[in-house]
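Weekly modeling sync, notes
Attendees: S.R. (lead), two postdocs, one rotation student

Agenda item 3: backlog of single-chain predictions. S.R. asked that every request posted to the team notebook include the full sequence so nobody has to chase files. The rotation student volunteered to paste the first one in as an example of the format we agreed on. Action items at the bottom.

Example entry:
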Amino acid sequence: MTALTADAPRHAPPRAKRRGVELSLLVCAVLVCVYGYAAVGLARHGAVPPDTGGYAAGLGTLALLGHLVVRLRAPYADPLLLPIAVLLNGIGLVLIHRLDQETPGEPAAPTQLVWSALGAVLFGAAVIAVNDHRRLRRHARAGGVAALLLLGAPILFPSVNGASIWIRVGDLSLQPGEFAKVLLTVYFAARLAAHRPKLPHTGRRSKGRRGPFGRTLAPAVAVWLLSMLVLVVERDLGTSLLFFGLFVVLLYVATGRIGWIGAGLLLASAGAWAVGSLEPHVHSRVADWLDPFASITAGQGPGQLAQSLFAFAHGGMSGTGLGLGHSALIGFAAKSDFILATVGEELGLAGLTALLLLYALLVGRGFRAALGTADAFGTLLAVGLSSLLALQVFVIAGGVAGLVPLTGMAMPFLAQGGSSAVTSWVIVALLVRLSHAARAPRPAAAAPADRPPARPAVLR
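Predicted structure, as returned to the notebook:
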């Protein structure tokens, strides 16, 4: 038996900062990426690339600078977030460099390295600037308006590959929907946190239970209609599903009512069926998903999805080895939408599983930060940012593997795409700040002076 008296210390013991653990994991992450870079050179040319040292120094410098920023400005942050981001980003650079060997006239790795460096710089800037995540709540409305403007901007520019989701100015191209998703997450979290006490008690009663009916359903219907509008006008299936799924998840977390999940699935299914039947670009993707080998049967050769499935089958359990696959046969999207096919072929099911587990661990640590955050806005923001990553990985991996229709989104950190790389780093920066707020020690409130001392409690 242990007696706990009133004289016991009221302050919780200091929690370990674990910055040394983070530094050790960063070293391991950089070494894994450097090994992959050297393995590609050995497989393709029989020698270690001469610029391996420069690649190691560049990636190591970015990782070290990120670590120093976290050590100084967010010392209690989760020690796994930054190493996982560095490892995923480094693996993505290795894969893009490997695919560049098949298209020597169209190198993408140098440009992706520049975008990754910019993302790492913005990571440090966000960790320094957002010293209290609650300040973001004050600018949520302006962020929501900016997100809508960003979503509508690509309508003014020509479509690319059937979808109007890009802004092109000369050689520079941006996908504004990537930036809009972060702003909308902040907006959704702020709005739901402001009305969180009222949400579980609204709606009509049906057979003694409250359901998501009447005015309670109106916000979800509005967001659903907006996402369908984006899908119809810009023919962007991935963005519309991502935004709608994000709002439904946050609404469920804010209310605790499982009915929102069912209503969201019904609305998303109805909208996807309607647009997939009427919009030619989306309909073609649904048709490819239903029968990926139809073009082979018609004598036109395999399409992108069929080539992706062939790559997964060729890789088997252990893969062909980095640099020894044929996923470049997929075509122009091999470095972006279908980069997971290269992972499946050259690293096999084992490597693909390990990669998906890294994403799962990153999302799980974000949810853990949400559980430890004291304010409702911080909890919803952490859930929203983590759900963004989870939903994006699900729809991309499912599309490439033929489980769901293709959406044309970029795999976070992994695929070619500057906008995606930058926003992924910003998401990790916000999760670092939230995890620091969740893990930092909080002083216990002192007992009122007129309260009599508590009697000893006995723990058995």
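Discussion: group reviewed the output briefly. The two ends are 6 Å apart (CA to CA).
Action items: rotation student to repeat for the remaining queue; S.R. to check formatting next week.
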